[in-house]
Amino acid sequence: MSQGLYLSQKMALSQVLAPQLQQSLALLQAPTLELKALVEQELQQNPVLEETVPTTEADKEETGQVGPDPALDPTEPPADVRFDPATEKPSQAPVDDFQAEFERLSQLDQEWRDHFAQTNIPLRSADVEEEKRQFMLDSLVAPASLQESLLEQMRTSSLAADQQPLAELIIGNIDENGFLAATIEELAASAQCAPERVIEVLKVIQSFHPPGVGARDLRECLLLQLERDQRTRSLEYRIVSDFFEALSRRRIPEIARGTGADLDSVQEALQRIARLNPKPGRDVETAETVYVVPEVFVTRSGDDYEVRANNDHLPHLRISNAYKDLMSQAATSPEVKNYIREKIRAGKFLIKSLHQRQQTILSIAREIVARQKEFFDKGVAGLKPMTMAQVAEAVGVHETTVSRAVSGKYMETPRGVFEMRYFFTSGIQTVSGQGLSNTSVKEMIAEIFKNEDPTKPLSDDEVAERLKAKGIVIARRTVAKYRGELNILPSNLRKVY
């Protein structure tokens, strides 16, 4: 058989999510801020949808717009759509005379303009307001990154014009901590120049702010900072330069013998070294501010807690009156009616999906609060192990639904704002048979290390024994794992002489 490209037909069965189901899952997974963008997109694509903005809570309750109407069923025909009479006109009502209303408002606007012109009071136009708003947004200055700061210093430095491309290459290879991530040989190969030329330009960059930037390792970073402070003749400079290995292991007697200084002088020098910045790039790099909107609010009510959904930022949608009136008119063609019928069905499904999203998140949040009541009473020590499968079984949904519902969602509680995933942790069984979350165990380990004697730091085995005395049996390697996650050094590096 000859080789080549051929077309062939075959039949196969495959599972594909319906577009409406995909939309429902996207609404469930999207946080509030993303949800508004998705709804805005639907408003642009579906002409029968319109958004209402209730002004007060009383108006919301009166009009029935606290959330999407759960009674709307997307499988029903459009003619039988049930709308709240407080917000929707009957389908037989005449269409409003928009032209007459527009002319009346235009005349009123002109009268007010004439009045302000006679009283010499300047009237702000929409263009002026938009210009001022844009000026305000343009005036907001974002903090410069480390690379941007170094590039700005490069332009005003003593580097020649032919050296600046190489300087840009070096700056591009400096990480967020301020260290040079590439070797001299790699930079020289990329720039197709001699390594000596790279070192010459690197020396200039290392004179930039912040002190220590551009260092190839921690030792060079500390030496650059000491040189900037003109402390090249100090004991700490000699320790970093000649005894860095012993310094990293805190072998103070070995450093004292090598430098000829007494233990007290070495200890004081180590304290001055500890004040240096091991990550100079962090002085310039600023973390991006993340804004979140809580999905639910948890408030204390006596000895219990009340969970309330955040509907303030939820878009309130309804089917436009104009299209309902158009459906009831005999002159409307069948093609137009079919188009409107499909759009109304899609709009009803969107409204129902929004309501289902709120109900699902609220039910999961209530189950979380019920299971983690001790956390809200006592703090992290009361956090219990909890899995998504347990919550899914209690709420009556699939485990993947819980995962989507809590993804990127936040809960405002009396103890602060927490991501809903924070409450799902695996646990450790205590001697008494009670479950204890990993987060609570980490908190206990951190408290043990905090209260230890600095001159006699505790080993991982000793911490495991102290936890065992409290009924928590974990292995030494588990303590070491949690200690590493807490950024706590081993005992030989924590010892203070």
Describe the structure.
The protein has 497 residues and is α+β, with helices and mostly antiparallel strands. Among the domains are: 146-283, Orthogonal Bundle (Arc Repressor Mutant, subunit A); 427-494, Homeodomain-like (Arc Repressor Mutant, subunit A, Orthogonal Bundle). The protein has 23 helices and 8 strands. The chain has helices at residues 19-29, 32-45, 57-63, 98-118, 126-139, 146-155, 164-172, 184-191, 195-205, 218-228, 235-242, 244-248, 252-259, 263-274, 321-328, 334-371, 373-378, 388-395, 399-406, 438-450, 460-469, 476-485, 491-494, and strands at residues 49-52, 296-301, 304-309, 316-319, 410-413, 416-419, 427-429, 435-437. Strands 3-2-5-6 form a 4-stranded mixed β-sheet, with helices on one face. It has a two-stranded antiparallel sheet with strand order 1-4. Helix 1 (19-29) packs parallel to helix 16 (334-371), helix 18 crosses helix 19 (399-406) and helix 21 packs across helix 22 (476-485). It is extended and about 105 Å long. It starts with 18 loop residues before the first helix and ends with a helix.
